[in-house]
Q: What sequence folds into this?
C-alpha cells in the first residue's frame, strides 16, 4: 500500500484591504442609489439643484458662509490659491510630506513652492517649523504670498499660532482639508473654518467620498467665493460673458453632488468608526503617528518603524494590505526644475519609516483584531 501523502491544510486567511469602497451599509447604498436615480430622472446633470443644495449643506457643516463645488481637490487648491492672489513669481509655503498636491497647484499658477519642516511626532506643520522656514526664507529675501496648511492623515494642525504668525506678516492661509473633513480642532472649530479659504477633495477614498472626482472650496469671504465661482466656469460673470481672464472649467457634477448629499449625514458616524479603529491600533503600539493633545479623525492610520520594510512584509504575510503615504517628499519629486534646494531631514526620514494600515468605516471588528495582533507582534 502506498504511503499516504501527508500534507497540512494551510488555511489562508482572507485578505484585509487597505480600503474597500464597495463595503457600505444597506442604508448608505440605498441612499446613494436613490440619489443617482433622482438625478438621472431629473434631466439636469451639471450645476443644478443638487449642486446648489450641496454647497449650502457643506458650508453649514463646516460652519462658514460659502462653499463652491469644483471638479477635484487639486483644482480647489489651484483656484483657492489663485483667489488669494497667488500668481507668477510668487512663493507659496507648504509642507513636503502631503503628496505633492499643493506643489502641483502652486506650479500650475506659475508660482514657486517653498517648504517648511514638520514636527517629528505628528508630522504636521507647527509654530516652530513655520518660524524656522520663514526665517530661512527671509534670509533669501522671500516672503511667501500664501501658506498651505495640510491637516494630514485626519489630524488637525494647531491653528492659533499658525494664524498669528501668518497674519502678522500678511501671509494668506489656505487649509487643505482633503484628509480632514469633519475634524474639529481642540478649540471646537471645524477644520476649514480657520483660514482665509479651505479646500476639500471628494475623491472616493476621502472621508466624504463621491463615486468619481469632486472637490470644493469653503470660505467666510464672499469675494473669494465669487472669484472661484467665476473661474470654475470659463471666467463668466454672466452666461457667455467672460469677465475674468483666469477662467477654466472645473465643476462638481450633479450626480456627485447628489451622492455627497446622501453621504454627508453619515460622515460623523463614519469618522467615529475610523477613530475607534485608530484607537484600537494605538492601544497596542506607540508606533502610530498621532497628535497627543489634538483631535484626530483617522483618514489614514499611519505607523512609523525603523525597519519599515520588514514590518510591511510581516503584515503582507498575514494577508494585510499596507501602503505608504507618501514615499517621496515633494522637494525630491522629479519636477523639471527642483522646487527648492532645501534639506528637510525630519520629512525625509519620516518618508522612509511610515506605513499606512487598513482603516475605513466598513472594516469589521474581526479584521481590526487581526491587524491589532500583527501590530502587537511587530511592536513587541
Ligand atoms: C487627495 C488629496 C488632494 C487632492 O485631491 P484630488 O481630488 O485627488 O485632486 C489634495 N490634498 C490632499 C492632502 C489630499 O489627500
A:
Amino acid at each position: 500500500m502506498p504511503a499516504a501523502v501527508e500534507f497540512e491544510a494551510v488555511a489562508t486567511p482572507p485578505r484585509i484591504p487597505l480600503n474597500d469602497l464597495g463595503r457600505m451599509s444597506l442604508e448608505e447604498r440605498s441612499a446613494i442609489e436613490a440619489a443617482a436615480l433622482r438625478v438621472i430622472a431629473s434631466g439636469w446633470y451639471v450645476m443644478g439643484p443638487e449642486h446648489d443644495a450641496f454647497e449650502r449643506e457643506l458650508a453649514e457643516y463646516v460652519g462658514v458662509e460659502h462653499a463652491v463645488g469644483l471638479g477635484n481637490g487639486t483644482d480647489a487648491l489651484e483656484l483657492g490659491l489663485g483667489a488669494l492672489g497667488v500668481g507668477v513669481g510668487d512663493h507659496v509655503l507648504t509642507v513636503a510630506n502631503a503628496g505633492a498636491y499643493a506643489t502641483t497647484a502652486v506650479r500650475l499658477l506659475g508660482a514657486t513652492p517653498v517648504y517648511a519642516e514638520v514636527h517629528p511626532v505628528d508630522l504636521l506643520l507647527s509654530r516652530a517649523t513655520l518660524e524656522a522656514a520663514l526665517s530661512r526664507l527671509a534670509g533669501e529675501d522671500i516672503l511667501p504670498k500664501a501658506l498651505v496648511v495640510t491637516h494630514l492623515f485626519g489630524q488637525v494642525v494647531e491653528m492659533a499660532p499658525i494664524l498669528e504668525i501668518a497674519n502678522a506678516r500678511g501671509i494668506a492661509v489656505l487649509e487643505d482639508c482633503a484628509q480632514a473633513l469633519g475634524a474639529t480642532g481642540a478649540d471646537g472649530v471645524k477644520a476649514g473654518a480657520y483660514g482665509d479659504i479651505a479646500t476639500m477633495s471628494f475623491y472616493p477614498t476621502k472621508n466624504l467620498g463621491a463615486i468619481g472626482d469632486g472637490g470644493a472650496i469653503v470660505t467666510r469671504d464672499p469675494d473669494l467665493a465669487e472669484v472661484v465661482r467665476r473661474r470654475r466656469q470659463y471666467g463668466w460673470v454672466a452666461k457667455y460673458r467672460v469677465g475674468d481672464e483666469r477662467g477654466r472649467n472645473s465643476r462638481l457634477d450633479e450626480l456627485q453632488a447628489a451622492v455627497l448629499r446622501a453621504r454627508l449625514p453619515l460622515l460623523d458616524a463614519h469618522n467615529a468608526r475610523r477613530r475607534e479603529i485608530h484607537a484600537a491600533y494605538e492601544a497596542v503600539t506607540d508606533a502610530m503617528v498621532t497628535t497627543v493633545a489634538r483631535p484626530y479623525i483617522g483618514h489614514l492610520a499611519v505607523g512609523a518603524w525603523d525597519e519599515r520594510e520588514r514590518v510591511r512584509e510581516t503584515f503582507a504575510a498575514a494577508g494585510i494590505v499596507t501602503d505608504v503615504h507618501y514615499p517621496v517628499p515633494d522637494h525630491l519629486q522629479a519636477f523639471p526644475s527642483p522646487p527648492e534646494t532645501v534639506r528637510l531631514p525630519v520629512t525625509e526620514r519620516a518618508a522612509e519609516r511610515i506605513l499606512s494600515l487598513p482603516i475605513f468605516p466598513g472594516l469589521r471588528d474581526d479584521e481590526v483584531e487581526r491587524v491589532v495582533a500583527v501590530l502587537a507582534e511587530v511592536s513587541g
Observations:
- Residues 249 and 262 are 25 Å apart (CA to CA).
